[in-house]
Amino acid sequence: MSEAHERSVMVVGDRFEEFLTHPGTISVSALLEYLRSGGGEGPPKITVGQGLTGEQLAELDKFAVTGRCVLATQERVPLPVERDVTHKVYEKNVLIGEIEDLGEGRYRTPLVLDERVEVLEDHLTGLHIPAVTLLEAARQTWTAVTERHLISPEPRSRFVISHVNSTFLNFVFPIPAHLEYRLRRREEGPVGEVIAFTVEVQQTGRIAARFEAEIRVIPVRFAEKQEAMAARQTLRDETTPRPRAALDAMGALI
């Protein structure tokens, strides 16, 4: 860690083994062990990348606050947002941090990737973060923005995706990145609201991925009724013989 006192080292989760072969990187477990031991000549200068668990981020934040380590490029250690605004059950599956209101329908949030997240635990190839993980981070971003900034808590609502167009422009690596939300259109529909927006994943000043989407925000009482009706109709369509299928079935019995 002696070189860390002269320049910043990038801290990433232990699972990013290939990325950790690059000079200037350190695994979070190695860094925390170093900080807990109290060794070294002075506080190391670090940049917090991706793959750290919520517990590791919280511990690293305490070390930064007490001066045991120095953040080189970040104001503070990014921590995950509350899971309820992302519609996730488990904290390890939260992929974003606190939402920052930039004004004029624009919002920003850091990517806060836990290496145990469901969309990564069974799919990690090469050095980059998989596209499906970025799509889920975008979904959490628009969900959190809608919950926090665009609608009221009551009546309770469901979000129904109308469409998502995805464009992937650059690899995203396990270093700091953020997502930026831009509201494009918002209008009242027959039931609830229609909200159109763009979410971009940005890293090192470049756009790495762009998601253009539209959702409908529907009161729960209507959403549950519509879903139940659709489920019954789909089941009925699948289990009711079609004319040709009925003839084939009769032929098989003769």
What do these coordinates show?
With 254 residues, the protein is α/β, with parallel strands linked by helices. It folds into two domains: 2-71, no CATH class; 93-228, Hotdog Thioesterase (Thiol Ester Dehydrase, Chain A). It contains five helices and ten strands. It has helices spanning 28-37, 54-65, 131-150, 220-239, 243-253; strands at 9-12, 25-27, 45-48, 70-71, 100-103, 106-110, 157-168, 178-188, 193-203, 206-219. The strands form two sheets. It has a six-stranded antiparallel β-sheet with strand order 5-6-8-9-10-7. Helix 1 packs parallel to helix 2 (54-65). The termini are far apart.
Q: Strands of the biggest beta sheet: in what spatial order? A: 5-6-8-9-10-7
The overall average pLDDT, rounded, is: 90
Radius of gyration, in angstroms, nearest whole number: 23 Å
> Strand fraction band?
25-35%
Number of domains: 2
The second-level CATH architecture of the largest domain is Roll
Q: Structural class, from secondary structure content?
A: alpha/beta
* SSE pattern, N- to C-terminal: EEHEHEEEHEEEEHH
| Fraction of helical residues | 25-40%
Question: What name does the CATH topology of the largest domain carry?
Answer: Thiol Ester Dehydrase, Chain A
What is the number of helical segments per DSSP (H or I, 4+ residues)? 5
How many β-strand runs? Answer: 10
Ranges with pLDDT <50 over ≥5 residues?
Answer: none
What is the CATH domain class of the largest domain? Alpha Beta
